TrEMBL record, chain A:
Domain of life: Bacteria
Keywords: ATP-binding, Nodulation, Nucleotide-binding, Transport
Organism per entry: Dongia soli
High-level lineage: Bacteria, Pseudomonadati, Pseudomonadota, Alphaproteobacteria, Rhodospirillales
UniProt xrefs under InterPro entries: AAA+_ATPase, ABC_transporter-like_ATP-bd, ABC_transporter-like_CS, ABC_transporter_ATP-binding, P-loop_NTPase
GO molecular function, one term: ATP binding
Entry protein name: ABC transporter ATP-binding protein
Residue ranges of every copy of the ABC transporter domain listed in the record: 33-262
TrEMBL record, chain B:
Membrane association type: Multi-pass membrane protein
Stretches that traverse the bilayer: 42-60, 66-85, 118-146, 158-180, 187-205, 241-265
Alphabetical keyword list: Cell membrane, Membrane, Transmembrane, Transmembrane helix, Transport
Family: Belongs to the ABC-2 integral membrane protein family.
Pfam families reported in the protein's UniProt record: ABC2_membrane
InterPro entries to which the protein is assigned, alphabetical: ABC-2_transporter, ABC2_TM, ABC2_TM_bact-type
Compartments it resides in: Cell inner membrane; Membrane
Highest rank taxon of the organism: Bacteria
Organism (species): Dongia soli
Name of the featured protein: Transport permease protein
């Protein structure tokens, strides 16, 4: 995993849409994700409000924010499950809107909220998805992911009979079948006990180290984000209101950990932060001062 | 638990629409293979229908000059009607399976294209229709000494047209479910029955009032059942009816496909692919 070094927020231009070229990227590598001016509205509700960001190849970026901040909506648009109202998404340098079916085999997705068919066994599910992803050596690959994710004892059990944690591991196995270059994970350790969650995080770190995959992670688990993410995008009300390496954010907010930073942002504990000026000032004005951040 | 094992092999890939269609067929095959109550249920109703209409035909055979000319006309009609019903149901239920299991998002963030999904649903409509009506067709031979297969090649033409019509209706039902969610699920069960009276399954089109005949002749199924009676009573295969049925089915499939793809695009705009489910 790439070393996480404290850095200042790269740059910003306009509220909620500052383009962020994340530090540590190899300049010759095409970014895994380039998002520009991304907007999603549902009627009068703006779920994602003009966000811009880049995820370099081989890095882990976390989307953090409270419920309804726009994280899952953003991931859904990156998967092509949801059509943006405006803006562009480029994956591996190619336009998602026009090249979706050529890009999807290079990525995968896992979420505890999207289930696999309950009546099929774990092995049957993996067989179906291995075929969907066009894998030729299916038996070899399925055996590999079953062993890696320690699913051998569950392989011939129906998914509907598994516990929530076991289902999460099966969903992760599905997501690993095609050796994705880009992995989109929506709360990958939700419903897992601490031991299994720690194991999954170690697995993700190992996978990234071996394959150089980019990971975009939406999570409410701050410890997980601090451990896995090279960079964090803080979302609030559909906008990216701050960004940086986890340690950098902690230092800038003068907090002990990322959870406290998250609470500052989620509860809008910044003097003078208002809908009219907050995001623009925060993003363009550099790190907030102690005066700007404080308990209520 | 340890997490430091390494990938044992570098996989190879092939971009193949056929492989993806086969994957979806396999997914439904897995469900059917392990669910014998479903298999029995699929064959149960067509067989019961065949038995009831078989006894009714036996009774009418002695009391009706019309039926005396072709004993198997009612049994054939009920079995062909089940081809239409079962294929529509097979298409729609296979689609609903994905919603019930909340699997649509997994499918459509994979390389599967909507048109490949539809192709797999058509295969499943054929499989489910065969599972449903084939036992009834075979049992009619020992029960009543009547073989629907005595119609010969025209039976294949009728079967094909009813299968395609069932899939066209299945596309419309699936589109409605995508658009309105599982609240529209019951359409899968009753839509096709709305067409039964005007498809003239058991009686000729002449029975209908003039204004209703116009509507009746706009359905592919009407040409199939009139064509069936032509074969059984007059021993003539009506190519004109066959051509009309093919043409109307092409139109129905085009409209169904258009509505489905529109509903799919709408679902992508509104985020319904992530939300629909139990």
């Amino acid at each position: 995993m790439a070393q996480k070094t404290p850095t200042s927020d790269p740059l910003s231009t306009r509220p909620g849409s500052a383009r962020r070229i994340l530090p540590g990227a190899e300049p010759e590598k095409v970014p895994a994700i380039q998002v520009s001016g991304l907007v999603k509205t549902f009627g009068a509700v703006t779920a994602v409000n003009g966000i811009d960001f880049t995820v370099p190849a081989g890095q882990t970026v976390a989307l953090l924010g409270g419920n309804g901040a726009g994280k899952t909506t953003t991931i859904s648009m990156l998967l092509g499950l949801l059509q943006p109202s405006a803006g562009t998404i480029r994956l591996f340098g190619e336009d998602l809107a026009s090249r979706r079916h050529y890009l999807l085999p290079r990525m995968n997705f896992s979420s505890p909220y999207v289930e696999l068919p309950h009546r099929l066994t774990v092995r049957q599910n993996l067989e179906v998805f291995a075929r969907l992803y066009g894998l030729l050596d299916r038996a070899v690959r399925i055996k590999a992911v079953v062993e890696e994710l320690e699913l051998r004892a569950l392989a011939d059990r129906r998914v509907g009979t598994l516990s929530a944690g076991q289902k999460t591991r099966v969903a992760l196995a599905k997501a690993m079948l095609n050796l994705p270059e880009l992995l989109l994970l929506d709360e990958p350790t939700a419903s897992l006990d601490p031991d299994t969650a720690d194991w999954v995080r170690a697995y993700l770190e190992g996978y990234q180290a071996r394959h150089g995959a980019a990971i975009l992670l939406a999570s409410h688990n701050m410890g997980e984000v601090e451990r896995l993410a090279d960079h964090v995008l803080m979302m609030r009300q559909g906008c990216i209101v701050d960004a940086g390496a986890p340690q950098d954010l902690i230092e800038r907010y003068s907090r002990q950990n990322l959870e406290e930073v998250f609470l500052d942002i989620a509860r809008d504990r910044r003097a003078g932060f208002s809908a009219g000026r907050g995001e623009a000032d925060l993003l363009s004005g550099g790190p907030p001062s102690d005066r700007d951040i404080g308990p209520n | 638990m340890t997490a430091d094992r390494h990938m044992s092999a570098t996989p190879r890939f092939r971009d193949s629409a056929l492989s993806r269609i086969a994957a979806m067929v396999l997914r439904h095959f897995y469900v059917l293979r392990t669910s014998w109550p479903r298999l029995i249920e699929m064959a149960y109703w067509p067989t019961m229908q065949m038995i009831i209409w078989g006894f009714f035909s036996t009774f009418l055979y002695a009391h009706s000059s019309w039926l005396a000319n072709a004993f198997g006309v009612l049994i054939s009609a009920v079995m062909l009607w089940d081809v239409l019903f079962r294929s529509q149901l097979g298409f729609s239920l296979s689609f609903l399976e994905e919603l019930w299991s909340r699997n649509l998002a997994n499918l459509f963030c994979s390389p599967l294209r909507p048109i490949e999904h539809i192709a797999a649903l058509i295969v499943m409509a054929l499989v489910r229709a065969l599972i449903g009506v084939l036992p009834a067709m075979l049992l009619a031979i020992p029960f009543y000494g009547y073989s629907i297969f005595s119609m010969g090649l025209p039976l294949g033409a009728f079967f094909f047209n009813l299968l395609i019509m069932g899939c066209g209706l299945g596309l419309i039902v699936s589109a409605m479910i995508l658009r309105f969610g599982l609240a529209a699920e019951n359409l899968a069960w009753f839509l096709v029955f709305m067409l039964a009276p005007i498809s003239c399954v058991y009686y000729p089109v002449e029975v209908l009032p003039d204004w209703l005949r116009v509507i009746s002749w706009s359905l592919p199924s009407t040409y199939v059942f009139e064509g069936m009676r032509g074969v059984l009573f007059d021993h003539v295969f009506r190519w004109d009816y066959f051509a009309a049925s093919i043409g109307l089915n092409a139109l129905l499939m085009s409209v169904g496909l258009g509505i489905y793809l529109y509903a799919f695009a709408l679902a992508r705009r509104r985020g319904l692919l992530l939300q629909v489910g139990e």
